[in-house]
Specification:
The protein has helices at 55-59, 73-80, 95-104, 108-111, 121-124, 128-136, 140-148, 198-207, and strands at 20-26, 41-45, 150-156, 175-177, 179-181, 186-188. The protein is α+β, with helices and mostly antiparallel strands. The strands form 2 sheets. It has a 4-stranded mixed β-sheet, covered by helices on one side. Strands 5-6 form a two-stranded antiparallel sheet. Strand 5 (179-181) and strand 6 form a beta hairpin. The longest helix has 10 residues, at 95-104. The relative contact order is 0.14.
Length: 208
Amino acid sequence: MRDKKKVKGCLCGLLLTGVGATFLLTGSALNAADDPNKPNFLFIQSDQFRYDLMRFVQDSMPRYSGKTKIRTPNLDRLRSGGVYFSQAYTQCAVCGPSRATFRTGCTVERHGEQSNDLCDEEVYTRGSLFKNKIEAAVSFEMILVGNKGYLAEHYGKWHMPEIFNWSESGSTRIMTYNDYDFVNNLPKFNNTDSSLDYDKRLGEIAGS
């Protein structure tokens, strides 16, 4: 949880493959704790994550009895302080469509991103069927930044249409930062469908 004064120069380091995190921060100088009607949010999403790759789940399953179990103290701590859904199902077991569903609250049929290829503007603009749906999709960042005065940052894997970085009208950028300059140690914005390309960034550092 952070307020606007603490945003500058901050990076959340996420080392798990396929992990992305979005920060939604109050636009006022008040700490979120001072305004219960306008809390800050941290949204973490990962790919290819089996439901039982968490220690507390393995502890509850008889088949793991007597077996070596993984240690996931941070995930267990998140679960203990929140809500765990044991019977939740994905809209689509593919990265891009699933991410777009989480961000928009819509089915894949409604938001239009029905395959990973449809993250790419060059693909989804080939015909009106998907183009109209994707361009009409509204993410929670668009609503909170555009209507509620929040600031948004995204770090990690993106894999959604680039237009989700912008307002519903497409005229205003809503994602303050979505990438990081490791050479100069500064957050930045990169208008592409990938964020934090670690291989590329490590190459830049090695060559600096």
